[in-house]
């Protein structure tokens, strides 16, 4: 199955006609006027999502007040954000881009497309539209709280890892955020109650995981909670007894809010069914169409995406089959042979503290090796400021295997590659290298640092198909840079990783459009790709909570490669991979159709 550019969403207003809206008045310098408007919109986004300012390290100076705030997760708060989204979108649609430079046209396109998708998401009377929140923009969710969604998972980690504390003002802001965290929990619980009245209840297996994790977060002594101990450790040199203050807030406000959320979800659990897909929800088909569009920046149908996954999987497994045969593994399907390989003790890490330490050292070595290779793939280099960390144990049971992203704009907080070590039998010496390149460099951490060089609002907005497509392309670059030249098993791990994302196209659409059961999806995934049942169970549950998101990876990756082949054909001997990669990454995260126009411009410039 092939896809042409007509399948991609035209981000310049095709989703909502703007012909009848008034044009924005601009002065002689149209670019300056529009950039001023976009900068003002960036400040509005930061006010709606103060966590974004902290994630980027800009919650200081004139934005210092944001450090004491969190986003409003109540129904009223979300409705207020939705109204501001609609107002900004109307102004964006009124901009006459004909007089703007190419760079500013892209900036308008990015801001407008993000707002179009957000406005569509807010139109549904349930769920969580996260597109404009830097920290969690990839995960639109039909369920306000799930095993991988909700304040109880997202805020404690943000406060511990990103909320810097140097002064008493920083510590006071932390306390204010603890109160806001309790308010977020209360707001989410109210939205959960409203959703249940509409028949929007997560599947029983999702609720089982979520309740286990919530009870871990609620359990133990309040003084030992990471929320309290983090502040206590970091304010030892400050007067004010912040540990005691944090403990009081946690006891009086946060613990009761967690109790109420647990009680609400226990009510949901008594009504829950095992149906995995969003087809069961009110407007379920339309909701899935929106999540697919937002995740892929295409209007491809579930049937088209399902077929693409099967087609690409077949091609990848043909390549894997040839390597397996050369290594003497000839019996059974590719999935069966990869399953057997995953059980081979040669490639495993011991399920112990020592085994986990060896795994972390292994990741560090891979990053160090990659740094030496990157000048061969990029003409313009960024620092790749990175820290590899294990996820908190209370988060691991419902979390993905890993995730990563850039740090702060000023470089004071490094980018992170988080690894889930809850199930050690998931990891092998042949599947970890490609994961490392995906999450760290030249993947998410690397790409994010280029975005920091663009206007601020470009760091506030991301498109799942681009960011995850880039991370898969980063895996491909590692292979092309020769990391597996003497490692056939590592190359198998790389191909299995790409095939894993092709499987996602089949499974996500299977669950949400073709009414697959959870068990059907798990067994198909494990047997087809040769991944462990433990790994794919967590994955399938993730797709149930974040419909559509998993499809962005391979759709974005395939489009990047289509554009690369197109550029190679057009430029012939003048094609330079380093310059092409610069063109891909220096323009920041964009919708796929915008990326196509950027590469067309790159080709024209080289010519």
Structure explained in plain terms:
The radius of gyration is 24 Å and the shape is globular. The protein has helices spanning 30-48, 50-55, 75-93, 102-122, 151-161, 168-197, 204-218, 226-234, 242-271, 284-296, 302-326, 334-342, 353-373, 432-439, 444-451, 456-460, 464-480, 488-512, 518-529, 533-545, 552-571, 577-586, 592-606, and strands spanning 386-390, 402-405, 415-419. With 607 residues, the chain is mostly helical. The chain has 23 helices and three strands. The longest helix has 30 residues, at 168-197. It starts with 29 loop residues before the first helix and ends with a helix. It has a three-stranded mixed beta sheet with strand order 1-3-2. Mean pLDDT is 93; it is low at 1-6 and 10-23.
Task: Identify the notable features of this structure and list them briefly.
globular, 607 residues, mainly alpha, disordered N terminus, 23 helices, 3-stranded mixed sheet
Distance between the termini: 31 Å
Helical stretch tally: 23
Binned, the helix content reads: 55-70%
Q: Rg to the nearest angstrom?
A: 24 Å
Helix-strand sequence: HHHHHHHHHHHHHEEEHHHHHHHHHH
Numbering strands along the chain, what is their spatial order in the largest sheet? 1-3-2
Task: Work out the number of β strands.
Answer: 3
Strand percent estimate: under 5%
Mean pLDDT: 93
Query: What is the molecular shape?
Result: globular
- Look at the helices and sheets and give the structural class: mainly alpha
Query: Could you give a short account of the major beta sheet?
Result: 3 strands, mixed
Instruction: Name the poorly predicted regions.
Output: 1-6, 10-23
């Amino acid at each position: 199955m092939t896809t042409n550019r007509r399948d991609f969403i035209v981000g310049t207003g095709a989703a909502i006609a703007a012909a009848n809206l008034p044009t924005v008045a601009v002065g002689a310098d149209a670019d300056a006027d529009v950039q001023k408007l976009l900068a003002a919109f960036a400040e509005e986004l930061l006010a709606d999502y103060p966590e974004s300012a902290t994630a980027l390290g800009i919650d200081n100076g004139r934005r210092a007040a944001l450090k004491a705030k969190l986003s409003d997760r109540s129904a009223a708060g979300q409705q207020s954000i939705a109204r501001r989204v609609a107002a900004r979108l109307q102004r964006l649609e009124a901009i006459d881009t004909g007089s703007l430079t190419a760079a500013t046209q892209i900036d308008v396109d990015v801001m407008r497309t993000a707002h179009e998708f957000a406005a569509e998401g807010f139109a549904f009377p349930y769920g969580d539209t996260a597109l404009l929140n830097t920290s969690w923009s990839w995960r639109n969710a039909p369920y306000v709280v799930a095993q991988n969604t909700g304040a109880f998972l997202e805020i404690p980690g943000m406060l511990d890892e990103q909320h810097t504390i140097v002064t008493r003002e920083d510590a006071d802001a932390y306390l204010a955020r603890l109160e806001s965290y309790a308010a977020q929990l209360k707001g989410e619980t109210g939205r959960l109650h409203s959703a249940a009245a509409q028949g929007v209840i997560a599947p029983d297996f999702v609720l089982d995981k979520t309740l286990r994790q919530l009870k871990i977060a609620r359990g133990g002594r309040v003084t030992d909670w990471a929320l309290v101990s983090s502040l206590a450790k970091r304010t030892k040199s400050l007067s004010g007894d912040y540990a005691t203050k944090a403990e009081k807030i946690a006891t009086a406000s946060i613990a009761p809010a967690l109790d109420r959320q647990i009680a609400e979800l226990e009510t949901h659990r008594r009504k829950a069914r095992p149906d995995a897909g969003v087809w069961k929800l009110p407007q379920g088909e339309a909701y899935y169409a929106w999540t697919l569009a937002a995740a892929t920046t295409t209007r491809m149908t579930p049937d088209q995406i399902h077929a693409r996954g099967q087609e690409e999987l077949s091609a990848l497994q043909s390549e894997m089959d040839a390597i397996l045969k050369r290594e003497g593994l000839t019996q059974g399907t590719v999935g069966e042979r990869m399953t057997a390989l995953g059980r081979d003790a040669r490639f495993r890490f011991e399920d112990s503290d020592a085994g986990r330490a060896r795994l972390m050292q292994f990741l560090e070595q891979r990053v160090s090796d990659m740094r030496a290779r990157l000048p061969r793939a990029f003409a313009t280099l960024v620092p790749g400021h990175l820290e590899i960390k294990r996820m908190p144990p209370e988060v691991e049971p419902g979390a993905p295997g890993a995730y990563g992203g850039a740090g702060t704009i000023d470089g004071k907080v490094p980018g992170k590659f988080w690894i889930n070590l809850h199930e050690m039998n998931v990891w092998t010496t042949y599947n970890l290298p490609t994961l490392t390149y995906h999450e760290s460099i030249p993947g998410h951490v690397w790409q994010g640092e280029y975005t920091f060089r663009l206007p601020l609002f470009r760091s506030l907005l991301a498109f799942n198909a681009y960011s995850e497509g880039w991370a898969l392309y980063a895996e491909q670059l590692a292979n092309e840079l020769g990391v597996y030249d003497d490692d056939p098993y590592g190359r198998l791990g790389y191909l299995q990783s790409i095939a894993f994302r092709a499987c996602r196209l089949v499974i996500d659409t299977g669950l949400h459009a073709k009414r697959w059961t959870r068990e059907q999806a798990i067994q198909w995934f494990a047997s087809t790709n040769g991944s462990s049942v433990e790994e794919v169970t967590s994955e399938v549950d993730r797709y149930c909570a974040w419909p559509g998101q998993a499809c962005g990876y391979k759709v974005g990756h395939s489009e990047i490669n289509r554009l690369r082949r197109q550029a190679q054909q057009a430029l012939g001997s003048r094609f330079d991979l380093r310059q092409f990669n610069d063109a891909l990454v220096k323009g920041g995260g964009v919708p796929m159709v915008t990326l196509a126009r950027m590469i067309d411009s790159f080709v024209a410039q080289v010519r």
